[in-house]
Task: inverse folding
């Protein structure tokens, strides 16, 4: 674990792997060190944001000694996301993988996922655990608008678009589950470490 300064009011902790990043995120939230205002886990890093004037040297010295939980898991989970497999790219994914539409949907649902980190847009969770057979590249030409609720894959990740946005991931289907709601506390249904399962709602 390596702790680096990130500007005047933050530290970037290089953890080396996703599991340790999630465990350190949980440890920091439990310890609630004075001056820390936000903790942002990434795939192999944790950004620790502090109030201006916080003694970053003292905070940096404390972080490596925090006891890490054996396993970091957000909530009881898993969060179940129902999917109708009617995506615009479902046929293309089937052709790329040599599978039928039904087999693509079945493999997508069979996997157990974990939110690695949030990024790109509020509430957008990068989900690890995708079946390697479904590791397909992004579209060569991104769409200017992807509807909220679109269930997509790209490379080793799966995701659900929480709000309308541009995007180049391949669309397998859609879900009516609301992942981002500003009236909810917290607004994001997903957070790093959350376990996720997709449940089939059919193909069209």
Result:
């Amino acid at each position: 674990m390596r702790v680096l300064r990130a500007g005047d009011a933050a530290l970037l902790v290089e953890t080396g792997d996703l599991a340790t990043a999630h465990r350190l995120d949980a440890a920091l939230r439990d310890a609630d060190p004075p001056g820390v205002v936000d903790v942002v886990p990434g795939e192999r890093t944790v950004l620790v944001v502090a109030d201006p004037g916080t003694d970053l040297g003292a905070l940096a010295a404390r972080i490596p000694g925090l006891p890490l939980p054996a396993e970091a898991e957000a909530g009881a989970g898993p969060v179940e996301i129902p999917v109708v497999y009617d995506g615009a790219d479902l046929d293309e994914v089937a052709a790329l993988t040599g599978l039928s539409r039904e087999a693509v949907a079945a493999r997508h649902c069979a996997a157990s996922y974990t939110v690695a980190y949030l990024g790109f847009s509020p509430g957008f969770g990068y989900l690890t655990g995708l079946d390697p057979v479904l590791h397909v590249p992004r579209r060569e030409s991104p769409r200017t608008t992807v509807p909220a609720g679109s269930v997509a894959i790209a490379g080793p990740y799966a995701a659900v678009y929480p709000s309308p946005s541009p995007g180049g991931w391949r669309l397998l289907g859609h879900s009516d589950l609301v992942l981002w709601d500003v009236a909810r506390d917290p607004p994001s249904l997903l957070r790093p470490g959350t376990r996720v399962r997709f449940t089939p709602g059919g193909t069209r």
In short: The mean pLDDT is 91. The first helix runs from residue 18 to 31.
